[in-house]
Automatic annotation (TrEMBL), chain A:
Keywords: Phosphoprotein. This is Two-component system, chemotaxis family, response regulator CheY. InterPro entries: CheY-like_superfamily (IPR011006), Sig_transdc_resp-reg_receiver (IPR001789), ST_Response_Regulator (IPR052048). Residues 2-119 form the Response regulatory domain. One of its GO terms (biological process) is phosphorelay signal transduction system. PANTHER family: TWO-COMPONENT RESPONSE REGULATOR, TWO-COMPONENT RESPONSE REGULATOR ARR22. Gene3D superfamilies: 3.40.50.2300. The modification 4-aspartylphosphate is found at residue 54.
Automatic annotation (TrEMBL), chain B:
The keyword Hydrolase does not apply. The keyword Transmembrane helix does not apply. Keywords: Chemotaxis. Pfam families: CheX. It comes from Geodermatophilus telluris. GO terms for biological process: chemotaxis. This is Chemotaxis phosphatase CheX.
Length: 120, 174
């Protein structure tokens, strides 16, 4: 399976990928995207099985990316990994079609909890 | 948490800008920073709440919050500490020579995570800006700020949550 990790911070992408490994998802292919627009294009070109996206990014936010994907007919499973975990953000994420929102800082257990149902 | 929300509502009711000290306690800022360090820097990476002078060649990262309370969350530490933090965040992926771009990225992301969690305990709705990094963080009202001084691996760093300067409050939004 293939996971697309979208975050404008290279360091945070590394942390997310490291946490995926720690959570036991070490046999999946990882594709990286550096903002929402890049993520949108890589969903089209790479066909990932899951998108893990930051929310606040330049060019196109994670939410705009998700809305654009759903608007174009994509049903790719999509979850946010973001520093903002308020009820308002979670509601916006769910309304747009996100499966979950993982708030930073996170642990491997948090990843397992949210991803097992998607990647199992 | 109830006290925090109540304070914000009382302030808004009078149309006065809320003072950050009424909305946020130092202990909350410490707890947010500690959780960020344990999860992102490493599970053994503790922050000790002890004041110590920052070195002259300090580097800051910050994110702005715009909403019922408007201001910035600023993280400041020495350049050597920023470099060590970057290596710790990158873990096994840290290159032999860490580029300045990675240092800015790492320090900015720490401010982003701390800022996002500070935003969550402040009255909303509000918007979090993208992280910025530099030697000159945005000026704030010293009297209207919450500042915590911490030690990480014996090196000083500070987290400051500060309201914007008065003149910026008078700007007319476009």
């Amino acid at each position: 399976m293939k996971i697309l990790v979208a975050d404008d911070s290279r360091v945070m992408r590394q942390i997310v990928i490291r946490t995926l490994r720690q959570a036991g998802y070490d046999d999946h292919d990882i594709v990286e995207a550096e903002d929402g627009r890049d993520a949108y294009e890589k969903v089209r070109s790479e066909g990932p099985d899951l998108v893990l996206s930051d929310w606040n990014m330049p060019n196109m936010t994670g939410l705009e990316c998700l809305q654009a994907l759903r608007g174009s007919g994509s049903t790719v499973p999509f979850g946010f990994v973001t520093s903002e975990g308020s009820a308002e953000m979670r509601e916006k994420a769910a309304d747009a079609g996100a499966l979950f929102l993982i708030a930073k800082p996170f642990t491997a257990d948090t990843f397992t909890e949210h991803l097992d149902g998607v990647l199992a | 948490m109830t006290d925090v929300s109540d304070a914000g509502l009382r302030r808004r009711a009078t149309d006065a800008p809320p003072a950050i000290a009424d909305l946020l306690h130092e202990a909350t800022v410490c707890e947010i920073a500690e959780q960020a360090w344990l999860a992102l820097v490493g599970e053994d990476e503790v922050l000790v709440p002890l004041p110590a002078p920052l070195p002259a060649d300090a580097l800051s990262s910050w994110v702005e919050i715009v909403g019922p309370w408007t201001g910035a969350v600023v993280l400041t530490c020495g350049r050597d500490t920023a470099l060590d933090l970057t290596r710790a965040l990158l873990g096994g992926h840290a290159p032999a020579v860490v580029e300045q771009e990675d240092v800015h990225d790492a320090l900015g992301e720490l401010a982003n995570v701390v800022g996002g969690n500070v935003k969550a305990v402040l009255p909303g709705p509000s918007v979090l800006g993208l992280p910025e990094v530099g030697t000159t963080p945005p000026s704030g009202r010293e009297a209207d700020s919450v500042r915590v001084a911490l030690l990480w691996r014996g090196s000083p760093l500070t987290v400051r949550v500060q309201s914007v300067l008065a003149e910026r409050e008078n700007e007319v939004p476009l």
